[in-house]
Amino acid sequence: MSKAGNNMEFTAEVNRLLQILTHSIYSNKEVFLRELISNASDACDKLRYISISQSDVTIDELKIKITVDSSKKTISISDNGIGMSREEMIENLGTIARSGTKTFIENMSKDDDATSQIGQFGIGFYSAFIVSKDVTVLSKKFDSEEVHLWSSDGTGTYNVQQIKDKNISGTEITIKLAKDAHDFADKQIVEDTIKKYSDNINFPIYLSESSSSDGEQINTAGAIWAKPKAEITEEQYHEHYNLLSRNFDQPLSTIHYKAEGRFEYDVLLYIPTTRPFDLFDQQRKAKLKLYVKKVLISDDTYIIPPYLRFISGVIDCADIPLTVSREILQENNVVLSIKKAIKNRIISTLNKLAKDDKDKFDIFWEAFGPVIKEGIYEDYEKKDDLLKLIRFKSSNTKDGYRSLEEYIGDMKPNQKSIYFITSEDYQSALANPLLEGYLAREVEIIILTDPIDSFWTATGIKFEDKELKHVSHGTEELTDIAVTKKAKKKKSKAKITDSDLKKLIAEMTRVLGDHVSEVKINPSLIDSPVCISIGENVYDKTMQKILQQRQGISISKPVLEVNPNHDVMIKLSDMFKNKQTKNINTTAHILLDYALIMDGEKPLNIEEFGKNMQDLIGKFN
Ligand code: ADP
Ligand code: MG
């Protein structure tokens, strides 16, 4: 802050954002109006809540006023809401508070297409700089006499100063429009834009060409959620959803009903079509507004569980006390009962969507599947319903999704469990030798490629009494199922006797020593000599790596499984009988490295791997 006391610098993210906004061609300029009107409406909501919860605060009729001046090329948006103090102006109009937005802007690629990325989310107040380099904000907090003027030309700094001879209530934002945005000084264009974007605002919006008169009201200012469904068009829902969610997509599905029973309330919820940019924000909060008879009392959305945070919407309930603090509100009986009912309703709507409209549900699953999976281990009560929603690719289908119900319906005779593998991608999962025994029996394998899959599958899942098992843990059960596909290679006629096999395993265990936790036989291997599996009661690789990173827990050593019928193993057994110690050593290490590679890992030690390969090649003649 300089000595003059008024010039201040924007934070780095704001600077970055302003640079993009003022230097690029923005195709969707009118969003600035939507953002500023939405802020004005928030300010009115806040003051209305205060006036109702604190008896000593009385207020005028709350409203939003927009004035255009076609000769000076200015537009101003004012409201008589809560207003801002000097500190609040600095805090709110010089930084970016929402962490999701912050990271998004920091990480935004520097390519030409930045504006299309930015268009994915509401950029709030700063969107004024899309249409101008010259923005001023005049504001007075409702409980103070001091009026402050904030101004900036969209470069690195802004200015805040107290204005002595001005009397306003609330906030007035004035924008001197840039040349390519002069349209927004035209009354008709502004009116059309407001009708398009802001008809759902709950306060009257007036538009005029003079600051001395209010002009005419141009929105309907009705609470859309309180209206009967039949009176609302798709378009109105769409706009309302955009307003609430800050996203520009269409709702995939709308849930609108009046709950009647012990408590009465209106519910209007939206399921989005595309992933909002802040879906993986640490806060994991839904965009839900809680009203009491059309007075907004909270947008702190603990009402929706974190794993359904993609939902946005409104709940309006007359039975919630207006004057309780947020902490007490969370414990309130009515709120608790609404919370439960809403959760059930969302999940049953999703289950219905999955049944009635597979294509739509697939779109939903693409966008929100990983988030729903969080619910499987976070919400024990709803686990079974959520498992019904799970969709996956499998060894039976690469394109299109399968459900657990479909899986169970197609199980082979004698198949005991549901089998899955976690992997980074579909192709490498299929190449894993662990799958051979399953594929030979045409047993379906669920292929899971989201990082979160390692979590929920580790919690002991059963679906319709069938256990969900990692392919490592199902090979013994496989022997009960008939083989339907012939092995690609012919089986060697030679066989290792049981006692030779025992000796060989003991020798491999000795040679590989510390590098494996166990060497054992896997009778269901077919074309591969060896593979890696995970031990009983051991987490899968992804989970182990996460636990290592977060808690320093060391990764357990791999289990090496061998195919007793494979030529390579028969040769190895012969070497052992002929006491070719060095050859056994080299081959055992190569086999372990081979198994690791097939499991998507690196060889134990690249240098030794190279040496061993050379050794081996040296033996060809
Ligand atoms: P958001 O609306 O998501 O909080 P914005 O960038 O739109 O983000 O606004 C930042 C903050 O500035 C708001 O949270 C609010 O505190 C303050 N603000 C913006 N416009 C107004 C206004 N018209 N009246 C009072 N406060 C406002
Ligand atoms: Mg805003």
If you had to describe this structure to a student in words, what would you say it looks like?
- The strands form four sheets. Strands 1-6-5-4-7-3-2-8-9 form a nine-stranded mixed sheet, covered by helices on one side.
- The protein has 621 residues and is of the alpha+beta class.
- α10 packs antiparallel against α11.
- The mean pLDDT is 90.
- It has four domains: 212 residues, Heat Shock Protein 90; 140 residues, Ribosomal Protein S5, domain 2, CATH 3.30.230; 91 residues, 3-Layer(aba) Sandwich (Rossmann fold), CATH 3.40.50.11260; 121 residues, Four Helix Bundle (Hemerythrin (Met), subunit A).
- A hairpin with a 2-residue loop joins β15 and β16.
- The structure holds adenosine-5'-diphosphate (ADP) and magnesium ion.
Summarize the amount of helix as a percent range: 25-40%
Can you tell me the overall shape? elongated
Distance between the termini: 81 Å
- Any idea how many domains? 4
| Second-tier CATH architecture of the largest domain | 2-Layer Sandwich
- CATH homologous superfamily name of the largest domain? Histidine kinase-like ATPase, C-terminal domain
By helix and strand content, what is the structural category?
alpha+beta
The number of distinct β-strands equals 23
Overall mean confidence score, pLDDT: 90
CATH class of the largest domain: Alpha Beta
**How would you characterize the largest beta sheet?**
9 strands, mixed
